[in-house]
Amino acid sequence: MKINTLDDLDKFESKIGSEFRKFRLGDILHSLHIYGKTAEHPFVIAGAALFAIRFSLPSKNIQQKKGISSGNLTKLINLIWKYQSIDPIIFDNDLHTDFNASNPIFLLIRVVNQQFPFNISKYSQFTRPIFLYHEIPPTLVGKKGVPKFDLIKEFENLNGVSVPEFINLMVVISSYLRQYSTFSLDDIVRQARIKGINIPDEQGISLAISQIAGDQKQLTNLYEKRQAGDRRFKMYDISPLLEFPIIYPCRGTGFTDYGNNIISAPIPDLIDRRNCIGIYYQLFNKFTNIFSDYFGHVLENYLGIVLNNCITSELIFDENQISSSYSGKKPDYAIIDGSMTILFECKAVKLKKDAKTMATEEDINESLKQVIKGLKQLDEFIKACQKKLPGLEKFYGCSKFKPVLVSLEEVYLINSDWFRNHINDLLRNEGIINLDWQILSIGELERLQPHLVEGIHLSQVLQNLGQKTFNNVLKELAAQTHKTYKDSFLYPKQEELYQRLGIPDINE
Q: 426 burial class (0-12, 13-18, 19+ CB within 10 angstroms)?
């Protein structure tokens, strides 16, 4: 079916929906789970699961794993491929004209945010949350400059369980739903307790599960609530599976009587994501800036832990150690490596919903305000060092400065040439030129850590990242050091967690 207008797109969407309506939700989810074990593109599975949630009939409330034929599954998958390959620039003349006159990055941002969030790294999804949401918050109580926010208390109020209990439960459920396409939550709980695994009581489980699992009605309502405002971009709508990775495929399910409910996770890795970045978004959606202002200090502390586990011979200084007399805005951390200084600043760098789904220049620029603010701060500090202002004597011998913004969540393609050109244009409007910046997520620094601690300097890695992609640099480091996640400072916590719960390590 050729798409020439928005009406054609609506008809194609309806056609796909009619195909999904021929099958029960649980049967499709079962087949997608099996398909996902060998599929290379989980975003297609997510797209198919969303159509099934919206259009398929609910399954009967029995634990039946029937599936659909491979031929029917292939037909559905092909329809999803075609739907997700459409962009409105192919049928809307105004958008096509705007695209020809604009930076191609805006189209690519839509595409990668449709696809990449479903490629979940198993690296640190259960260990980083222990630091961020459990160990670091108590150390910030009463600390000067840190806003008052009781993360541990508010988390428990929302989820009915403590952070460690929640992580235990997520590990257990993820482990079962990684093996089985559908499972009775009642059976998971019973088997976990037989093994002596410490998980919450029934009331705690019921509330915790209500935060990560939903039935068709709830997930459909969430999908409709967060749709792109411009329906020409409907193929890029954000999936509710990112917030609720577990699905009740049966009719009449609810959150108060969890015992007889069958649950399914077409992409089990999303449970791990919900346990990590998902906790941040749950708290942010509830408390907005009150939480994000506080959490900046949590992330800053965690960055210090990561960096201190990276360096060998370099010198590292936190904000307080950089200078006691310099009155300007200081970076969160500085690493001096010979004549080079690397400056780190944590910022809440994330694209808003419309920037991900429609990616207009206006939407992107709105989401980049924190990026520009952070880079301006680092540029001002670099210029102060170059002027050898009082209080910055540590940096008098430095001839090179590398500003690095660190975000909690990866912003896809942000270091690519097209994206860099756009950000540099915004910086030029602020009077900043020739700033050799880098933006890294905390997860990317975690993945570099086991290689850096072998004596490879971060300054050299950052130089390589200016010429190669992160994945290529990481592969070269792994070939050089022969280190893996098991050599990370994070791994002992994960190993202890899995051994304590009696669950096979997913990194084995």
A: middle
Is 344 in contact with 406 (CB distance < 8 Å)?
Answer: yes
Q: What angle do CA 152, 411, 50 make, to 5 degrees?
A: 80
Over 80: is that where the pLDDT of 113 sits? yes
Q: Which amino acid is at 229?
A: G
Query: Is residue 235 classed exposed, middle or buried when 0-12, 13-18 and 19+ CB atoms within 10 A define those classes?
Result: buried
145: left (phi over 0), alpha (psi -120 to 50) or beta: left
Question: Which residues on neighbouring strands pair with residue 482, listed in sequence order?
Answer: none
pTM: 0.94
CB contact burial 470-485 (16+ within 10 A = b; e otherwise): beebbeebeeebebeb
Distance CA 348, CA 327 (A): 24
Distance in angstroms (rounded) separating the CA atoms of residues 285 and 275: 15
Pairing of strands 315-318, 246-248: unpaired
For residues 168 and 201, what is the distance between their CA atoms, to the nearest angstrom?
12
* 301-to-3, 138, 294 alpha-carbon distances in Å: 50, 12, 12
In the numeric block, which tokens belong to residue 92?
A: 């809307």
- Of the candidates 56, 54, 47, the one whose C-alpha atom is nearest the C-alpha of residue 81 is 47
Given a cut of 60, whether residue 80 has pLDDT beyond it is yes
Q: Where are the alpha helices (DSSP H) in 325-415?
A: 353-357, 361-367, 369-386
CB-facing half-sphere around the CA of 144: CA atoms within 13 A: 2
Q: Which amino acid is at 433?
A: I
CA angle 461, 464, 465 (to 5 degrees): 90
* Range of lowest pLDDT (125-139, 184-198, 375-389, 415-429): 184-198
- Strand-pair partners of 184: 262
How far the first Cα of the chain sits from its last, in Å, is 45
> Judging by DSSP bridges, how do beta strands 340-346 and 333-337 pair with one another?
antiparallel
Q: Give tens-digit pLDDT for 437-471.
A: 999 999 999 999 999 999 999 999 999 999 999 99
Q: How far apart are CA 390 and CA 398, in angstroms?
A: 15
More confident residue, 428 or 65: 428
Tokens of 36: 């996902």
